[in-house]
Design goal:
The complex is a heterodimer of chains A (269) and B (364). Chain A has 269 residues and is mostly helical. Chain A is built from 13 helices and two strands; from the N terminus they run ααααααααααββααα. The chains are: A mainly alpha (269), B alpha+beta (364).
Chain lengths: 269, 364
C-alpha cells in the first residue's frame, strides 16, 4: 500500500487509474447487461429480418431504397408496419409492375414465409400496424354481420359500393371490388390504408368493429341472397338500365319481328 | 267493300294478265297499282283450322287466368323471407320470383292471345278509307259567322259596358286563388338553411365531436394521418344526449351536421386559413356536397381529394376544400375545431358558411 501510495504522483498514475476504472466498468457491464441483446443475433426474429433484408434488396429496394428510406419512385416504408407489407405483397400489388394512377392487384409471386421475412424487416425500420392473427379478423359474435353492414355503409360503401362491388375514383384511380378478398387482407387494408384508401386505425374503429366489417363483406360476397334475381354486378341503375333496354327491349323487338314475319295466309308467298 | 273506291284503285293485275300490259304502261307508267287481290287465310277457308285457332286463343287466356290465380296464391302462401336457389339466378326471394313470373305470364298470355286472335280469326279484309278535306264548305262557314254576329248583338256585350268590364275583372281575379295556394309550399325556411346543430356551440360551451362508429368523443391523437373518420355533434344544451340515431329528427339533423375528420401533415396544408381552423393538422369538413347536397366522402388520402359520387365534383381538402373539378360552386364548409380541458376535440361554434347546396339568399 505504501509503495502504491508513494507512486501516486507518478506521471503515469492517472493513466493507470483510468485503465482500472475502464476495466471495472466493462466488467460490471458484462455482468449486468441484458443477456437478450447479446443473443438476439441468432434468434429466429433476427434471422427473419436478415432474410427479409436480402429479399427486400432484390425485390423492393429499386424504388423504396436499400433501407426502405424511399425515393422519387416509391414512398418511405419507415413506420408502415408489417401489416402493410403483408397486404401489398400478399395481394400481388407489390412489387409494382409499372408506375401509374393506381397499382392493381395481380398474382402474388412470394411465399408466405418470404412475405413474413420482408414484413419483419420493414417492421424493424419503425413501429407500425402489425400483421393481424386469425382471431383478430374473425368475429365469433352472432350479430356481427348486421352490425358490420351498418359500419360498412357508414365507412366503406361510398367508395366500395353498397355491395362491395367497387367503384371509380378520380383520374384513373378506383376502389377495387371486395369479392374474393382474403379476410386478412380486408383487415389489413383498414389498418394501413393502402395507396389512396384512408386508414381506419383502432383509435377510431376498434378491432371488434373491423371484425364485424370483415364478417359482413365475406357474407355479402359469398352467402348473401339476391332477392331480386340476377345481381348484374350489383352496380345499380346503370347495368340494370342497360340490361332492361338492350335485353328486355331486344326480346320484345325480336318477338314483334317474328310475329310479322309469319303470315297466316293459306297461300304462302 | 269497295263502294267508296274509284275504279282506278282496283287491281290492275287482271289487265296485265290479258296481254294489254304494254299499252297500259305506255299510258301511265306511274299508275297506282292499287291493292293486291285479297288472299284468304287458312282459318278463313278451313273450319277445322279456325276451330283450332279458337282453342289456342282460349288456351292462352285460360293460362293467363291460372297465372293470376297463381299470383294470388303465391302472395298468400309464400313467406316473404324465403330464399330459394333457382338456376341461373342464384339465391333469390321465392316470393319475388313467384309474383314476377305469374304476373308476367298472366299479362303475356293476354297479349299473345289477343295477337293470335287478331291474326287468325278477326276479319283481315283490306279496307281503304279515303281522306277528305277538314275544312267545312263555304255555306256552313258563312252560316256560323252569321250566327256568331247575331249572338254577339243579342247579348249586348258591346253595349252594356258595366257587365263587360265586371266580367273581365272577375276573370282576371280568379287565377289569384291558384297563386295564393302556392303559399302551402312554405313556411319560409328562415334561418334553417344557414344553421346546423353545431351552431348550438359557443366558445364557452363547445360541442364535442363524436365518432359515428363508436359513439364516443375523440382526441386529436386518435386521428392518424391518412385516416378518415365521420363525426356528429355530441351533447349540447339543446340535445343533452348528443345527436342519436334514435332521435326523431336524426336524418334531418345529420344531413346538415355530418362531418369528415381527416388529418394532414401540417406542412402539406396549402391554405393557412384552413390550417388555422383545424387542430394540429386535424381538419373537420362538412360531408355534404355544395352542389346538390350528396354525402361526399370518397376521400383519397394521398392526393387529399374528396370526390362526390353524384356529379364528380372534386375538392382538395389540403387547400381549404377548393373545388378542383365538377359542378360544385363553393368549397366544402370547414368547422373550426379546438380541444377542451380534457383533450377532446370540440367545435367552439358553427360553420362559417352554410352547408349544402347554394340557395338564393346564401351569404358569401
Amino acid at each position: 500500500m505504501k509503495k502504491l501510495s508513494a507512486r501516486r504522483r507518478h506521471p503515469l498514475a492517472a493513466l493507470v487509474v483510468l485503465l482500472f476504472a475502464l476495466a471495472a466498468i466493462g466488467g460490471l457491464y458484462a455482468e449486468f447487461a441484458p443477456a437478450e441483446n447479446a443473443q438476439a443475433d441468432s434468434s429466429a426474429q433476427s434471422l427473419a429480418i436478415d432474410e427479409g433484408k436480402r429479399l427486400f434488396a432484390v425485390g423492393c429496394s429499386s424504388c423504396h431504397g436499400l433501407n426502405g428510406e424511399g425515393s422519387s419512385t416509391g414512398p418511405s416504408l419507415v413506420g408502415v408496419g408489417s401489416a402493410a407489407v403483408d397486404f401489398q405483397v400478399g395481394t400481388g400489388r407489390m412489387p409494382a409492375q409499372q408506375p401509374g394512377a393506381q397499382i392493381p392487384k395481380k398474382k402474388n409471386i412470394y411465399s408466405q414465409s418470404d412475405i413474413d421475412a420482408m414484413a419483419a424487416f420493414v417492421a424493424s425500420l419503425g413501429p407500425g400496424p402489425v400483421t393481424p392473427t386469425k382471431d383478430q379478423y374473425t368475429s365469433t359474435e352472432t350479430d356481427a354481420i348486421s352490425k358490420g353492414g351498418e359500419l360498412f355503409r357508414t365507412n366503406c360503401s361510398q367508395c366500395h359500393n353498397f355491395a362491395g362491388a367497387g367503384g371509380a375514383l378520380t383520374q384513373g384511380k378506383f376502389a377495387p371490388s371486395l369479392e374474393n378478398v382474403d379476410p386478412k387482407h380486408i383487415y389489413e387494408a383498414m389498418q394501413t390504408g393502402p395507396q389512396n384508401m384512408p386508414s381506419f386505425p383502432d383509435t377510431t374503429m376498434p378491432e371488434k368493429q373491423k371484425q364485424e366489417i370483415v364478417a359482413f363483406v365475406r357474407y355479402q360476397a359469398n352467402e348473401a341472397p339476391n332477392p331480386g334475381g340476377l345481381s348484374l354486378g350489383s352496380l345499380g341503375p346503370v347495368t340494370e338500365g342497360l340490361f332492361g333496354w338492350i335485353f328486355g327491349l331486344g326480346v320484345l323487338i325480336a318477338i314483334a319481328i317474328w310475329v310479322a314475319a309469319h303470315t297466316t295466309k293459306a297461300k304462302k308467298s | 267493300m269497295s263502294h267508296d273506291m274509284s275504279d282506278d284503285k282496283l287491281p290492275q293485275a287482271h289487265a296485265a294478265g290479258e296481254g294489254h300490259g304494254e299499252a297500259a304502261v305506255a299510258d301511265n307508267p306511274f299508275a297506282d297499282p292499287g291493292l293486291p287481290p285479297h288472299e284468304p287465310r287458312r282459318t278463313d277457308i278451313d273450319e277445322r283450322a279456325a276451330k283450332r285457332a279458337e282453342r289456342q286463343v282460349s288456351l292462352l287466356f285460360i293460362v293467363s287466368m291460372l297465372a293470376t290465380v297463381g299470383f294470388i296464391a303465391s302472395y298468400v302462401s309464400i313467406d316473404a323471407d324465403r330464399i330459394v336457389y333457382i338456376f341461373p339466378l342464384g339465391h333469390i326471394s321465392a316470393l319475388n320470383f313467384a309474383l314476377g313470373m305469374t304476373l308476367g305470364v298472366a299479362l303475356f298470355c293476354i297479349g299473345a292471345g289477343a295477337v293470335h286472335w287478331a291474326r287468325t280469326l278477326m276479319s283481315d279484309v283490306e279496307l281503304p278509307a279515303e281522306r277528305h278535306a277538314i275544312e267545312a264548305d263555304d255555306e256552313t262557314r258563312a252560316d256560323v259567322i252569321e250566327q256568331f254576329k247575331t249572338g254577339a248583338a243579342e247579348s249586348g256585350f258591346g253595349r252594356r259596358k258595366m257587365i263587360r268590364n265586371t266580367l273581365i275583372g272577375s276573370m282576371a281575379l280568379v287565377p289569384l286563388s291558384g297563386v295564393m295556394l302556392l303559399r302551402d309550399l312554405g313556411p319560409l325556411p328562415e334561418k334553417k338553411l344557414d344553421v346546423t346543430g353545431w351552431n348550438e356551440a359557443t366558445p364557452n360551451a363547445p360541442i364535442r365531436l363524436v365518432n359515428m362508429n363508436t359513439n364516443e368523443p375523440m382526441k386529436a391523437e386518435d386521428i392518424a394521418v391518412g385516416s378518415l373518420t365521420f363525426a356528429k355533434p355530441g351533447p349540447s344544451a339543446l340535445r343533452p344526449a348528443g345527436l342519436q340515431e334514435s332521435d326523431e329528427d336524426f336524418q334531418e339533423a345529420i344531413a346538415k351536421d355530418a362531418l369528415m375528420l381527416i388529418r394532414i401533415q401540417p406542412n402539406d396544408i396549402k391554405d393557412a386559413d384552413s390550417a388555422a381552423l383545424g387542430f394540429e393538422g386535424v381538419l373537420a369538413y362538412s360531408k355534404i356536397c355544395t352542389h346538390v347536397g350528396c354525402p361526399i366522402s370518397l376521400y383519397e388520402q394521398q392526393t387529399h381529394h374528396a370526390l362526390c359520387p353524384c356529379h364528380q365534383s372534386t375538392f382538395d381538402l389540403s387547400d381549404g376544400a377548393r373545388v378542383i373539378f365538377g359542378p360544385a360552386g363553393h368549397p366544402l364548409p370547414q368547422l373550426k375545431i379546438v380541444t377542451d380541458a380534457s383533450g377532446y376535440l370540440v367545435a367552439p361554434g358553427g360553420f362559417e358558411h352554410p352547408v349544402g347546396p347554394s340557395f338564393w339568399e346564401r351569404s358569401e
